[in-house]
Amino acid sequence: MSISIELISNKIHFVRGKAVMLDQDLAKLYGVETKYLNRQVKRNIERFPEDFMLQLTRVEVLRCQNVTLKGGRGQHRKYLTYAFTEQGVAMLSSVLNSRLAIQVNIQIMRAFVAVKRMGLTYIALKKKIHEMEKDYDIKFKVVFEAIEQIISEMVKTEQRSSQEIPKRRIGFHRD
Predict the structure, then answer these.
(1) For every residue of the chain, which 3-state class applies, written as one string?
(2) pLDDT for 52 beyond 60
């Protein structure tokens, strides 16, 4: 089974400065119910320290893009959502011991690596642009100073030439 890295990457959210995946998204990927996944986590809670798993507030859950509450029929979640860091997702494969869980976990790890690479690329690109801006600011400053000097010389020349040549009156004149 192969799940696209792009699909998984879209399920990675940034909460409290950490890249995480939500329990309901992971449950769908693993082919289990969310309550089963959470039950397995609670049975093995010693495997999930604070840096592996967070319990989100309702506001944090709503901020995550793909999370919407089902309305109308009492299908709101009874418990707060769990969010798993990369290490927490890796630990889930030992708790959900199935071939599917192992295969999905491999794809998820690849997605986390891809997201990290994109972040590093973004930082490197931002730094490169900043360096170019500095360099071009200096070069353009020289260009703008040269243009200013040319314009001021043209203005001076224009003023001198307008003073030397008498202006002719426009229109019909009776002299």
Answers:
(1) CCCCHHHHHCCEEEECCEEEEEHHHHHHHHCCCHHHHHHHHHHCHHHCCCCCEEECCHHHHHHCCCCCCCCCCCCCCCCCCEEECHHHHHHHHHHCCCHHHHHHHHHHHHHHHHHHHHHHHHHHHHHHHHHHHHHHHHHHHHHHHHHHHHHHHHHHHHHHHHHHCCCCCCCCCCC
(2) yes
